[in-house]
UniProtKB/TrEMBL annotation:
It comes from Patagioenas fasciata monilis. GO terms for molecular function: GTP binding; GTPase activity; metal ion binding. Belongs to the small GTPase superfamily. Arf family. The keyword Metal-binding applies. GTP binds at residues 64-71, 110, 167-170. CDD domains: Arl9_Arfrp2_like (cd04162). Keywords: GTP-binding, Magnesium, Metal-binding, Nucleotide-binding. This is ADP-ribosylation factor-like protein 15. Mg(2+) binds at residues 71, 88.
Amino acid sequence: MKEMSPLLPFSVNGDWKLSKFRTMSECIQLSFAVCRIGIYTCFRALCCKGPPPPRPEYDLVCIGLTGSGKTSLLSQLCSETPENIVSTTGFSIKAVPFQNAILNVKELGGADNIRKYWSRYYQGSQGVIFVLDSASSEDDLETARNELHSALQHPQLCTLPFLILANHQDKPAARSVQEIKKYLELEPLARGKRWILKPCSLDDMEAVKDSFSLLINLLEEKDFEPSRM
């Protein structure tokens, strides 16, 4: 009797189909695993996000003559209502929040009998805000210049960044920033120091916030060249 050949072709074909099926199954399982990882990652990013990193805090001193508008500017930055604004007679501290930092501002009263004590509150400051009334009288402007020069040369402040705000630019008698810069003699006195001179008024708080953002850049010691108007 003729011997029948083994079913070799059928067996090989069957193994090939089974191997192909297993490969497809493994690919499908791998695809599902990748999808699960992706969904889990997105879920964690959206729903399980940790608290944002704490914002850095800086201690600043804010000085200027009475009537320069220090209190009003800081109160507006803190979103306080105008009815609650009272001129500072001694000193006050406000935490002014910004997106990338919190400024703890120590505001000193600007009356004649208080200015002589300003230096007692300079210690620990990391920056200075000097506010002046750009529409003030010649006598007051000269007094403001003398106080600014004294602060710029004080041992505890001379290396710190300065933000100088020429306030009340909305008043008809307001001097331009160029006039104030020349009158204050900033270029020879503040050469080599980090300072910013900006115009401001309560009517344009966005500009005030931009000026404070420039100061924050200086406090963060970024590669930043202040615009000296």
